[in-house]
Amino acid sequence: MLPHDLPPWAAVYQQTQRWFKAGCFEAKAHDLRMLLRRAAGRQPAPTTAIMDSCTFQSTPESGAHDGYGGAKRRKGLKTHAAVGTLGNLLALRVTAADE
């Protein structure tokens, strides 16, 4: 469902995967986080992290990546996020709900 003025889907997907493997998105998020902290008058590197997780219910189309989370009694995926005190994302991981 890409707009018609973009390259074919396979080419866009392949380039995006290259950027993921090279760490381009993480580097951009890191640089943006440093700029936002400096603009707020803080040190560039955060010293405190706030961590949380959330379980998302899966659908039949989600495949074999989901698991059963006993605490929430639902089958799905769990996201684990760490943010700084300004709310900027530090780390994000998606796992099966039973991990």
Q: TL;DR?
A:
This protein has 99 residues and is of the alpha+beta class.
Number of strands: 4
Spatial shape: flat
What's the end-to-end separation, in Å?
Answer: 33 Å
Order of helices and strands: HHEEEE
**Number of contiguous helices:** 2
Number of domains: 2
Q: Which structural category fits the helices and strands?
A: alpha+beta
Extract low-pLDDT stretches.
none
Q: Determine the strand fraction and express it as a percent band.
A: 25-35%
Main pleated-sheet profile? 4 strands, antiparallel
Share of residues in helices: 25-40%
Return the average pLDDT rounded to an integer. 84
**Rg from alpha-carbon coordinates:** 18 Å
What does this structure look like?
- The protein is α+β, with helices and mostly antiparallel strands.
- It has two domains: 8-45, no CATH class; 46-99, no CATH class.
- It contains two helices and four strands; from the N terminus they run ααββββ.
- The model has no long low-confidence stretch (mean pLDDT 84).
Which terms summarize this structure?
99 residues, alpha+beta, 2 domains, 4-stranded antiparallel beta sheet, 2 helices, 30% helix, 29% strand
SSE diagram, text form:
Layout (H helix, E strand, L loop, with lengths): L8 H14 L1 H16 L10 E8 L9 E3 L4 E10 L5 E8 L3
Antiparallel strand pairs: 1-3, 2-3, 3-4
